[in-house]
Amino acid sequence: AGMKRSRGVALFVALVVVALATVLASRIGADGARDQRRAATLALQQQAFQIALGAEAWAAEILRDDAERNRRDSLDEVWATPLPPLPVEGGTVTGRLEDLQGRFNLNNLVKPDGTRNPVAYAQFVRLLATLQMEPKWASLVVDWIDPDTVADGVDGAEDGVYTGQDPPYRAANRAITSISELLALPGFGVERYRRLQPFVTALPAGTTLNVCTAPGAVLDSLADNFTVFGQDPKQLAANRERGCFPYVSDVEAGLQSVLSADELQALRATLGEQSNWFRATTRVGIGTTQLTLYSLLQRNPGGYTRTVLRSFGTE
Question: What strands, in cross-sheet order, belong to the sheet with 289-299?
Answer without folding.
Answer: 83-88, 91-99, 277-286, 289-299, 305-312
